[in-house]
Write a structure and sequence with these properties.
Radius of gyration: 23 Å
Structural class: alpha+beta
Number of strands: 17
Shape: globular
Helix content: 25-40%
Number of helices: 16
Strand content: 15-25%
Largest sheet: 15 strands, mixed
Distance between the termini: 26 Å
Amino acid sequence: MTLDPVHFDGIAQLAGRIDHGADASDRRAFAETVWEQFLDPLIARDGRTIVNPIGEQSLRLVDCEDVALRDREFPTQHGLDAGTINPTTFKNGLVIDIAQAAMSATPSDLDLHRSRTVVATVHSNDETMAVDETWGKFDEGFSRSRAVKIPPLPRFAEGVVHALALYLAESTHARDHADEVEDLLVLDGPLYPRGLLRWADQHPDLADFLLEDPRPTTVLENYVRLVEEFVDREVPLIGFVKNPATGVITRTLKQKRKAELSVPWANDAALFTRLLERGEYVDDVDGQRWERDTSALTYTNWFRSRGGVDGVMSRTGNALGVERERDLEAYEVTFFVVYDPRDDLCYRVEAPYAFTRDEEIREALTMQVLQDVAIAHGPPTIIEKADELARIRNPEKRSLCESFEEQFDTSQDRSYDDHRWADSAEQY
């Protein structure tokens, strides 16, 4: 049943009770103040450098059509992604998630596209539950799979099985096919497994799990070794984050009490959107309205990030105890932000400092990403291609769950919401 007009109007009128604070022009001015006065470098209250620019700090733009037509910086590209069925609980107490990782290539490589790495993670509070954790092959040897047992956890079982399945499949597949990447690898998501690295801050149970169980460390080690392999081969890799939700900059600004900053942004992406959006106020029937300029992509310089989750991989972080064989700064997360005004969206691009400390490589990576975004009108085609290969669609998820129910002689532990949304549109 849809809302009646009178009900819609009643709900909409609630906006009149809300004073949203400073207007848009004031927030743009404040964003410019933050940019000019606080990010070169951004210092935390304890004196640590959280963010600092690489090279000259600047806001830049490039015409969408011009950058789309320029020569490619990297003749070939590979993309990597992993999809999951999402954590599923069964009435026999098992919590299972399955991840499938795939790699795409441009130009296409059909054998590579056929290959998959599949990981199932299984949790049960029944300590007698056993899992054969050896790797097995299928699809005539093009693909391989493994099941992994997660020890009993008092809480967060679903989050743990999901993160470990996703990151173990992705990192293993990346390392297995690293030699096939000739020019550039683009990860669909961050450079390191942020979901796993957050555990130390979330709850004592998860912090203990990180210390006591070798699996999270093994997963992170895969990413560390991947960076080392690509640095040794002088082949760059980047992570393209489609939905950046980091809040390191905004949290640090809020802590600067002496500066009396009233930070209005929910996260860093909102701050950068305000900085990078271009346009002007034009006359309208109701006064003035903001008209966005959609002709150019805008972007920042690269920054080194040592705050929040990125601090784990900084030169002062412990990398969860994983040994790093190169100088510690080489592993640090660096990033730049690109804003696409056509969709009013911000993207964050990450790379290890081992590559971005070189100005020529830094510029080549920047131009390649800008060209890809301009052409694709969104995330680079190479990772959208990887997403298509790795995605497990809803009908397939349902069929897999039914297969598990038959094999376990049990049924899925469903809630009313599962029943209510059973026929809803596919979720990603």
